[in-house]
Amino acid sequence: MILLSDIASRSAPPQRNQDVAVRAVAAPATICLPYRPESVAAARRFVGAKLREWGLDDLMDDASVIVSELATNSVRTGCQTRMLVAVRRPSDRVIRILVGDGSRSMPVMVETGPGHTSGRGLAMVHRLTRGRWGVTPLPLGKIVHADLTVPEPTSR
Length: 156
What we know:
The chain is of the alpha+beta class. It has a single domain (27-149), classed as Histidine kinase-like ATPase, C-terminal domain (Heat Shock Protein 90), CATH 3.30.565. The chain has helices at 4-9, 20-25, 38-53, 60-75, 121-128; strands at 29-34, 82-91, 94-101, 133-138, 141-149. The chain is globular and about 45 Å long.
């Protein structure tokens, strides 16, 4: 049986020719949070702290929106277990944010009009990740992941 914790604990193998400094700080991080509205802010702080540790402050705003939307969707499932939030660095050019929950309901991107007060979350995730997000269904829930591209370092 595949569990949320099994998926989140997997880390990518080291990349060839990867910068030693990147490998040293790219340790993945995972946290379990209760299904409460205040967990969305905790998820933002968690991902933000990891990005600061990795020196990726330029991705903070986009990552904050992404994890907020995914965690909010997870909180709304009404699950009674724990929500999993993880951040990975599968390569030196990619940050992956994962949010897992105990619901098998798949996220759906919907079109909204100007009068709608909600429903834009996955469209924002789609736009910020340039379509690089997806869902892994599990026997006891799902994990939604979203990938952000790390900007090229600027030479001085």
